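Entry 14. Structure prediction run on the chain below.
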Amino acid sequence: MPRGYDEYLVPPLFGPWAESLVDRLQPSRAIRALDVATGPGTVARVLSRRIGRRGQVAACDGSPAMIARAEAKPEIEKGAPIAYTVSPAAPLPYPDRSVDVVTCQQGLQFFPDGRAALGEMKRVLVPGGRIAVSVWCPPEDCTVFYAYQRALREAGQDDLANLMSIPFPRWTAEDLEARATEVGFLNVRVFDETRDLEFAGGVPQALQAFAGTPIGPLLTRLGAEANAAIAAAAERTFAPLVLDGMVRGPMRSWVLLGAAA
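Output returned:
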């Protein structure tokens, strides 16, 4: 799954959003940064490049396979060294007041205790240190993924469709602001950002990308007939998003910014 995720979803989706997330922070050179729920190191590598060789980047993820994927990548030329660690978001294995910025791209909605995770991010920040966290908006606002969820339901795979809905909580900007404020973050702001997701290879490429998500192994176990039914349903549900053979649709995300006291 980490290989498929990295090859098929990072370039069109998580890579561009990682650049945008770090843009929101505008990190200075030569600082210390932490990326929580780093996956294959997508945001961590952007931070490394932006901070430069005199800085430091720490990155953690609960999946040993994702960390192994991240560690296998070459170092960023002239970038800050990245120290990867297998760890949940709460507790974090870093000292109090040890980093200047913390990022978390599309991880908060998965944590068993999101409040504790935000509290840990605040704990490791220096006074005045800043946080940038992104969370997808509801599924209807993330049209490409929503089309796939509908295809799964049409094909009778409700359990898989329910799993695919987890990344898209029905949180509001006020929900996120309240969560961050409750744990003590200051100057909390929540932005609404929309960017298009494109699959130049059309529906087949989109299906290949979704096979790189955590439901990939479950799709394999379904067998050829069930997967053919999903593909046929996808041709119908993706139809409004297809133009000249390309799948294209907006993805909407909340981006939370805040500062530690």
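The longest strand covers residues 186-199.
Filed with the rest of this week's runs.
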